[in-house]
Design brief:
The chain is built from 29 helices and no strands. By secondary structure, the chain is mainly alpha-helical. The longest helix has 23 residues. The mean pLDDT is 91.
Length: 472
């Protein structure tokens, strides 16, 4: 999947792509045709950098409801001839999820579209999962023939069918079909279920990887072989070392941490950190100067995982270094430092935004740290990250940090956060948004009664509008 192109944060399209609450509020006041055009663009061109963890579907579905929007553009996208050529789930996954939420809101056009796509679309399994949560038994049973027709009645087709049954997120349709009296439906699905169970058992009985009795050298060699195949195995290999290494092996592991191949060196460093070897911090500092990017990354990652007081003390020395270890030190202090480390965390946060922009992965712990330590001077940087980041998860973290550092948050960003795409951000808003704004009271009541809303959000809302809460 190509990286999404995100419009500027000050535009309606940019706000909707980011899933910001302000996107909904602006769309409801913009010309309806303009708002629907931007909304359709987002659903047809998934704007998320990581679709597996970022939410947009409920956000977009609610906006379709508020705008009473037609689904013609979504239909054209789903049934475009490109659907047969581009089989990646990410092309249509967001659109199908939006339709699933709309079906929950009793939009019959969305339900019909999901059924049609399950019969004919390339990403039929996703559509079937959406229907499994929302459709009735009769409609699901009617899909058995079209779905099973996708799998030829030969060995390859039966193997593919077994894999589809085994890997389905929602088993309800397959269970219904297994009860079908027709042999070409029920018997076939039951056979696929049995084969999937056997395949799973067989994989468990034939594990790959280290075996009991391996030596330290064998584990280090295994880690290097994995790296040469493109698989980073230093984490599982370090666990294996914990099982096979004894005190007499320390010299060999120290040597690997200094002079071993990249896979062996990363494994040794991770192991030494896990057992809190007294020399590990010096070895990590040495590894951070390696010409190998793999070793440098493992050194920074390993250091960031350490929880000891010695690691925090060393982080204070390393913070500000212009390398990966210096960046990791800032993150360590953000997660585990004390109030005295606030200037170092703030400096790391500012440097990350200045040098890598508002979407840098290093910002996640730094933003959390600014909130944890209550660094008031960080509020301007946090507001910038909130506005500009394309990651709805990072924006949510910025919102939580602002709630702890910015006195203007309750009357400012917290209000729009009630319409945010991430439920955790809506929860923060429900706890902090000033109720003097008439929109806040109305949205709190909507969230309290919306069956699609998450329980944590509704609990936060009830704490504001319940019988024991102050009047809204």
């Amino acid at each position: 999947m190509f990286e999404p192109v995100i419009a500027p944060s000050g535009t309606l399209l940019g706000l909707l792509q980011r899933g910001r609450g302000d996107g909904t509020l602006h769309a409801l006041t913009a010309p309806r045709s303009e708002a629907l055009s931007a909304l359709d663009h987002c659903v047809r061109n998934d704007p998320r950098h990581d679709w597996q963890v970022e939410n947009r579907s409920l956000y977009y579905a609610r906006l379709y409801l508020d705008l009473n929007g037609e689904l013609d553009a979504v239909e054209r996208h789903l049934f475009d001839p490109e659907d047969a050529l581009v089989t990646d789930d990410t092309r249509t996954g967001l659109a199908l999820s939006v339709l699933g939420h709309l079906a929950s809101y009793d939009r019959p056009d969305a339900l019909r579209m999901l059924r049609r796509y399950a019969r004919t679309g390339t990403n039929w399994a996703w559509a079937l999962d959406e229907l499994a949560l929302r459709d009735d038994d009769a409609a699901l049973r009617a899909l058995a023939g079209p779905v099973l027709a996708r799998f030829p009645a030969d060995a390859e087709g039966e193997a593919a069918l077994a894999a589809a049954v085994r890997d389905a997120f929602e088993p309800r349709p397959w269970r219904l079909w297994a009860e079908d009296p027709r042999p070409e439906i029920g018997a076939r699905v039951r056979a696929a279920q049995e084969r999937g169970s056997f395949d799973r058992w067989q994989r468990q009985m034939e594990p790959s990887g280290p075996r009991p009795g391996w030596s330290v050298r064998a584990v280090l060699d295994w880690a290097q072989e994995g790296l040469e195949r493109g698989a980073a195995l230093h984490v599982p290999a370090a666990r294996c070392l914990s099982a096979v290494a004894g005190p007499e092996d320390r010299a060999e592991i120290l040597d690997a941490a200094r002079h071993g191949t990249d896979g062996a060196r990363g494994t040794a460093l991770r192991y030494l950190a896990d057992v809190r070897d007294p020399d590990v911090l010096d070895l990590l500092e040495e590894a951070a100067q390696s010409p190998s990017a793999v070793v440098v990354d493992v050194a920074a990652e390993t250091f960031e995982r350490m929880r000891s007081a010695a690691a925090v003390q060393r982080a204070r020395q390393w913070a500000g270094r212009p390398d990966a270890l210096g960046a990791a030190a800032g993150r360590v202090l953000a997660c585990r430092g004390g109030a005295e480390d606030s200037p170092l965390v703030l400096a790391a946060l500012r440097e990350a935004v200045r040098g890598q922009g508002p979407d840098a992965p290093t910002l996640w712990p730094l933003v959390d740290g600014a909130g944890r330590l209550g660094i008031g001077c960080a509020a301007p940087v946090l507001r910038h990250v909130y506005r500009e980041t394309a990651s709805s998860h990072l924006r949510g973290r910025a919102a939580r940090a602002l709630a702890a550092t910015d006195p203007s948050f309750a009357a400012g960003f917290a209000v729009e956060c009630l319409w945010d795409c991430e439920e955790s951000t809506r929860e923060v808003a429900a706890r902090h948004a000033e109720t003097g704004d008439a929109r806040v009271a109305a949205q709190l009541r909507r969230l309290a009664t919306d069956p699609a809303e998450e329980d944590d959000v509704q609990s936060a809302v009830r704490s504001r509008i319940g019988p024991d809460a102050p009047a809204v």
